[in-house]
Amino acid sequence: MPKANASTAKEKSAKTAPASKTSHVRAPKASSKTLSATERKVFVLDTSVILYDHSAIQNFQEHDVAIPITVLEELDNFKKGNDIKNFEAREFIRFIDKLSAEHKLQEWIPLNGKTKGSFRVVMNQSVSLDAVKVFGDKNDHHILNSAIQIQQEQPDRKVVLVTKDINLRLKARALNLISEDYETGKIQDVAGLYTGSDTLEDVPANLINELYEKGVCEADNILPTPPLDNHFFILKSFKNSVLSFYNSADKVLERVDKHNAFGVKPRNAEQAFALHALLNPNIKLVSVQGVAGTGKTLLALASALEQRRNYKQIYLARPIVPLSNKDIGYLPGDIKSKLNPYMEPLWDNLKYIQNQYPETSKEYQKIKDMVEQEKLMITPLAYIRGRSLSNIIFIVDEAQNLTPHEVKTIISRAGENTKIIFTGDIYQIDTPYLDSQSNGLSYLIDRAKNHPLYAHITLLKGERSELANLANELL
């Protein structure tokens, strides 16, 4: 049998290896034995956790959850708007309102379900070690005081402040408070995250010749075990190699050719794989991950233009992450002027494709007409919320800046004849409460792999320029 490279073995072992120990907060496993009052922990949730996952309060099994009154005050500032964080704030407030209809918020209120604990709202009271006096008068420090207050009230129980704000975790530890990240839905082994492709060495030359001549080969003849659905392979023999794709429906390997998509031709094996998945009508959900300059957005856009006749519209969207986390309202001009700086990278890729052709060519004019007729629209992601995504190709750029819930929300909007493409770099996070483990793109890659409607490819080689490669490799 041909030899598989290290990533194949890593992918297989990940299915059977036990989860590694971690000091971070993960939804505790349900236990058959009932915990005593002192054994049950108290988790104090920060606002960042609620805005990340409004159902977080229900993810601590039989342990109790405390919500500082300051968190409710902060959520009040987020309840209006169309962003996902506004939705999360509203949903949490509604849930608390419903659950506390017949209770006082300062008392412990049972959460739904026999295996759930209770929750309460912690009012601001004086504490022995005042974080406001230590660090200054800020909402974060009032939240710290709420955790200290619970610790004073129940000294026999373990109290844990849960926040996605790294700096707040550090301040908590400075006050001898246990503080951890919220890890439900977090990917533990990012280094071993699914890449979508593998290299097989020592493949018999006659099988590679068969793939070249017939374009297809029985997978059992080459692969020791069935791979994940829509997985890609570089097959190598002593003299030659071939790119291939595992068609799980027919259980065959198909040859992958380097096809041109609206003037854009793949420059390496991974780009060829990505373009194959992007152009495959049977694959409705595609993710492309890679560092800057690997061609993620360019390939997605080129493939969409190539398939323009099969869809009513092409949408390109990206999350708005303002500098210094300021709202875009502070920028001058109308809404289009405010958003243009964030959409420029998408326009740059569109102009690159357009400039592959002379200005007098029909291809150049076609792109211009599509923009003018709104057949191709570049828009902020917040403007898509609530819409039905039917008969379109929807490209979401910079998907690493989305939460898992945002990714789920986008995919759940898909109607008939819709293809959704997520592109991004999981190591280039621009939002303060996400990282390579907790962002929506990593979550999607980990959860959707091995589904017949989904394909993923990680681009490894930068193709923007030699100078860009120098920055990625050396700086």
UniProtKB/TrEMBL annotation:
Domain annotation PIN: ranges: 41-170
Species this protein is from: Pontibacter burrus
SUPFAM superfamilies membership: P-loop containing nucleoside triphosphate hydrolases, PIN domain-like
Region feature (Disordered): 1-32
Keywords of the record: ATP-binding, Nucleotide-binding
GO CC aspect terms: cytosol
InterPro entries: P-loop_NTPase, PhoH, PhoH2-like, PIN-like_dom_sf, PIN_dom
Gene3D superfamilies, per the entry: 5'-nuclease, P-loop containing nucleotide triphosphate hydrolases
Name the record gives this protein: PhoH family protein
Molecular function terms, GO-annotated: ATP binding
SMART domains, A to Z: PINc
Similarity annotation: In the N-terminal section; belongs to the PINc/VapC protein family. Belongs to the PhoH family.
